[in-house]
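task queued by scheduler; priority normal; single chain, no ligands, no partner chains; default sampling; output format set to C-alpha cells
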Amino acid sequence: MGISIGSKFGRRTLGFAALLLVADARASTAQRDTSVKIEIYGFAMADVIFDFKTNNPDWFDVNRPSKLPAFDDEFGHNGHTWLSARQSRFGTKATIPTSHGPDITVVFDWDLFGVGIDAGQTTIRPRHMYGRWGKFGAGQLESPFMDLDVFPNILEYWGPNGMLFFRNVQVFWEPVDRPDGTRAIFALERPGASGDAGRVADREELQNIIARFPLPDISGTFRYGAKWGYGKVAGMLRWFKWDDVLTTDAFDLSSGTFGWGVSLSGGYKPSTRDLIHAQVVYGAGVENYFNDAPVDIGARTNFDDPLRPVTGKALPDFGLALYLDHTWNSKFTSSIGYSRVDIQNSDLQLPEAFRIGQYASANLLWTPVKDILMGGEFQWGYRQNHSDGFTFNDYRLQFSAKYSFSQTFGGSK
C-alpha cells in the first residue's frame, strides 16, 4: 500500500515537474516573442525624364504645375533630359514591447529629395520621425487632414496637385482603429503659412510685418472601411496673425484671420482588378496642406479703414484628384487620372500670380520579379496665371526602375 501511494505520489511529482518545464518553456517562448523587433526597409530608384517643355530647374524631376513658367522663357527654352535618383529611400521601424499595455512603435525614414533651401539637391530629407504608444503618438508624419490612400500607383514623385499631402509635426490621438480600416484621428499640428504681398511687397510699411501663429492647427478625420473600399471625411482649422512692429508711421497694419478646410475622399473597388481614388477639397488658407498649391494668405485692399488700408486674406482654394489603378495581370498594372487646384486670388496679387494648376498622367508598370518595378509614364502639367491671360502646358515622359528591400531582426522567431 505504501509502495502504491509512493508510486502514485511519485507520478504526481513527475507530472508537476513536467508542467513546470512546459510553463518554463512557454515563458521562454513568450520572452523571445516579446523582444524588440527592428525592420530595415527602402528602395533604390532611378528616373529618366524627357521634358518636352521646361519648368523651374530646382524641381526638374517632378511635375508641379505651380513650378511651371509664369511668363515666356522664365526658365529658358524648351526641351530637357533629366536623370534622378532622389526618390530612393531608407527607413527603420522599431516595435518595442512594454510590460503593461500596447507596444511602442518608432519610425524614422528618409529619402534624398531636397526641398526648401535644398531644393534641387540630392540630400537626406526626413519623411517620418515619430513614436506611438497605443492610441497616442507624436512626431512628424502624415497630417490627419490628408488621405495617403488617395495617392495612385504612379512613377512621378510629387503626385497629383489637387490632393492633400503634408507630413507635419503633431501630437495625435486615435480613439478608433478597427481591423476593417475604420478609424478616427485628431491632432494638434505645427502651424505655419506663406503669404504674398503682391503689388505692395516693396512698400516700407510692409517690411515690418511679422507673422505669428498663436495656436496650433487643429485637424480631425473619420474613415469608414468596408469590403467595397472606404470613405473618409476630414477637417482643418487654423489661426493666422501678423503684427506691425513699426510704430513711427500713421498706420497699424496688425490683424489676423483664420483658415479652414473640408475634405471628402475615398477608394472604391468596382472589381477585383480596379481601384478608384478620389478626393475633393474646399477651404480657405489651407494651401500649405495641398500637394502643390501657392501661398495661404494674399494681400488685399481695405480702404474702409484709413488706419489699415491693406490687410490679408485667406485665399479660397479648391482641389480635385481622380485616379484609376488597374491590374492587368500578376506582372502588369496601369494608373490613369486627373487632378487640379483652383485659387481665388486677392486683388493685390500680381497678374502673374498662380491661379489654376492641372495635372494628368497615365502609365504602364511591370513587375518581372518580386521587389523589382519598371515602367514608363506620360505626364501633363498646366498653369494659368491670375489675370494676365498667360497659360503654359508641359509634357513629360518618365521611365523608372525601382529595387526594393526589407529585412526584420528580432521579434518572434
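post-processing summary
- The chain has two domains: 1-33, 38-410.
- The radius of gyration is 27 Å.
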